[in-house]
Structures are given as C-alpha cells and as structure tokens.
Amino acid sequence: MSSKTLFLLMAEFEGRATVKLGDVLHYTNFKTLAEANKAANMGELMIPAFRMAQSQKSPYLVHLEDLAEAIDMARQEAKDRALLLSGKTHVVIKQPKKQTVEQSGPLRRGRRTQREAISA
Which pTM was predicted? Predict the structure, then answer.
C-alpha cells in the first residue's frame, strides 16, 4: 500500500481513521447505499466493512488503510493490463503442473496402484 494514497484519503476525510460506507460509495461500483450494505452483508464488498455495534441499524464503517490498499491494488491491476495490451510486456504462459505419482497406497478401493491408474 502506498502511504501517499492513505495520506490523500486522510486529507479528504479530515484525518479520520474510519468513515461510513456511504461516504466512500464513489470508490466502489455501487450506486446506492442499500446495494453496498447488501454486498457488505454477503461479504462481496471489495473493501472490508464492519459495524462498531451489534445492531443492524448501526452503519457500516470502512478503515482508510483498507480503502487505500484496495485502490492501490486496482491501480496495479490496471497498469499490468495496460502494459499487456500495449505489448510493452512479455506474455507469460502458465504451463499446467505435472502430476506427481506417489509410490505407495492405492488410488481407490480397487487393486490398482496410483501409478497404474495414471498410466492406464
């Protein structure tokens, strides 16, 4: 996480460590607070959101460090994608992992060992 991003967020939100989820909606892909609250309830929000009280009426809060980290990760992904699309970086093709064969024990209830089952 860039400390520059965190300091800019702290300046935007007047030095507070946590802010209400409704105040940071413009950093998420949700248009309404109801959509963001629903995503936070389901754990689908890109930023960790929490409540200070156990009440359902208490608002969700977001820590600015978590928000800064999410912004920096999104920025890095966008930079990588832009470099890849512009052809300025090498494309790395991932090779599938080779299967390792254990020498002892059957693969299933039958009589064949794992080596025999793979070679068949």
Answer: 0.67
